[in-house]
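S.,

Sequence below, as promised.
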Amino acid sequence: MVVSGQDDLSAPLPTAEVLIDSVGLSKVFTYSVPKRFESKIGIGSYVSVRLGNSRAKGWVVRLRQISGAARKGLGFDIIPISRLLGGGPSAEVIALCKWSAWRFIGSPVNFLTHASPKKRISSRPGGELDYERCEWQFRTGRGESLVVRIPPAHSRADWIAEFLGDPSRLSGQTIVVCPTQNMVKYLARSLEACGFSLALFPDEFEKALDGAQIVIGARNAVFASVESLSQIIIVDADDPSHAESSRPIWTSHQVARARVSEGQTTVTLSSVPSVEMMFGARTKALARPQERSGWPKVQVGDISETSGSNPLISAGLIAHIRQALKLGVKHPELTPEGLIDYDGVLVLYNRLGGARTLICSKCNQVVSCVKCSTTLMQMGPGHLRESSGDRREISRNSRQRLAVTGLRCPRCREEYPAICTQCMSGSLKVVTFGIERFRTLLEAAIGTRVTEIDASSEMQISDLGLVTIGTEAIFSRFRSAKMVAIADFDQYLYAPGLDASEVALSILSRAARLVPPRAVTTRHVPLYVQTRDVRSIVVKSAIEGDPRLATTEEAELRKRLNLPPFGAVVRVFGPNAKSWMEKSGIGSAEGVEVISTGEGSFDLRCNSQVRLLDLISKCRSKVSPNGVRFLPDPA
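The prediction came back faster than expected:
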C-alpha cells in the first residue's frame, strides 16, 4: 500500500478487495474505489490496478467501507483502482470458483477464467461476498441430484424439452452443459424452436444475467452467472469432453452437483453413468424395453485365437465390413452443426504410436490383475513408450520382447512376477502398431480405399472413402455411420487406470450413438467389437443394452478397494514431490495412507475426501508446493 493523495482522512473510504489475475500469485489486495467508479463497480467487476512497479488485472471479490478512524490508524492512504475494465462473474460463481480451487487443488484464478466473459461487458454495481469463507456453502450437497440413464439413440433435445415443459410456465433459469460445441449448436437450435429463450455461454453473458430461460454452452457453462438458477442439466456426462484436460482437472458434473442449493436440481444425462455420478443421487431410466431398443445390435469378435502377425485384421472384421459395403454407400453429407452424416464404415483405432498392453505368447490372453482385472504394467524402465506427438512405430523385435523384473497393477497396487496370470507362462509380448500401418494393412485386406482421420486431420467430405479409420476424433467429426468397428477394445478394457471399465463402457456408448439402434432393422452388424475377453461384463452390458451390469460390479469393486467415491485418492507428483511430502509431514497424519506409484509420484489415500483435501490445503499453505502437482481422483 502506498500513499495515493486521498482527501479528508476523517471520511469513510470505499474500498475493493481484488483477486489478482495470476495463477502464480492468486492473492487478494485492497484498493480504494475512486468516485467515478462508485456507482458502477460491484462484486465480480474486472479492474486494472497497480501492483508494485507494474500493472495487474483482477476481479473484485469484496466491497467495504473503511471508517475515518481506521484510516487514521493506518498512517497512509490506499492505492486507488486504476481502471474499471468491465463486468464479470456473479458473487455466487466467485464462491463456486473458490470451492473448485479447494476441491480440485488449484487456484481460484483457474476457474474464474472459465467463468468470465470473453469480451468486455458492462460492470454491474453491488453484491455481497465473504471471500474468506465463501466456499464452505458448497462442501455439502444441498440440492437434489438426479441421474437419468438415457439410451444412445434417444433424442437428447426431445428429452430436455419434455422435462422442462411449457416455456411459458418455466420458472427459474436452466443451465444446459454440453460436451461439444456441435452439441451446443444442435440443442440450441432445437430448444429455440420449442419456444425457449436462450443465451449462449460465454458469448451472450449479459443475456444470461438478464434472465434467459436456458443458458447453454460447453463445459465452462457450469460456471455461467445467472440471476435465478433452477436446475443444471449435464448432457452425455460420460463424454470425456466434460473433463478439463489441463491442470487442475475437473469435471462439469462434479461442479454442478456442488453448485445447486436447496430447491435446485442437477440432472445428469448419460447412457452409461459412472459409479461416482450415481453415488448419492436418485436414478431414473426409461422403460426396460425402450432402453434396450435404444442400443444397437452388438457383435463381438474373439481375437484371442487369431493367428498371424496382425491379429487385429481378423476374418470377422473383414467379413462384416464387406457385408456392410455390399448394401451400398450414399455420399456423405454435412449437417448444419458441421458434423458428417456418413453411410460408410468407421473403424476406431485410437493409437498413434505404440502401446503397453501385455499379451501372453502361449495362451494369447491379456496379462491382467487377478484381484481387479486391470492390465498389469511393467515395473522396470519404460523402454516401450507410447508416443502421443508423432507416429513412431515400435520395431517388430521390440514388440515381441519384454525384459522386465516384474509387473504391477496400477489400480490396486498388487505386484506380480513377469509371468502370465492365466497360464503362468513367462513369455510375454506387446503386439501393436500405429494407425498408419493399420490403415495400410486393412486396405490391403478388404480391397477398398481406406481413409484416415485424427484430431489434426483437415479433410473434405468428398475425400472420404467407403471405409474410414480414425482415433476418437471420429466421435467429434461424425454424426452417423452405417457401421462402427472397434478394432482393439482391449486397449480400453485393460487400460492402466482406475476408471478403465467405465471409460470402456463410455466408448461403446459413444460408438452406439453413431449407428442405427436395435429398433431399426438392418442387414448388417451396426457395432462390431474385437476383444480377447468376450465374456467381459462391459461387453455384455452393451450386448444387453443394460449398463447396470457393469456399473454394479464396478461399484462393488471400488467399495472393496476403498476407491472414489467411497474413499479419497490424491496423486502428488513432480520434481519436488518427494521433498514436499517429507517437509509437509502429510504422510504421518492420522488416517492418511501413502503409496509410492513411481519415482517422484505418490498416492495419498484417506476415507474422508474433505479431511484429505483440508490437510493438503493446510500443508500447501505451510510448505511451498513449487515443483509439485496434485491430481485428485487419478484415473
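Confidence is low (pLDDT under 50) at residues 1-6, 380-404.

Coffee later?
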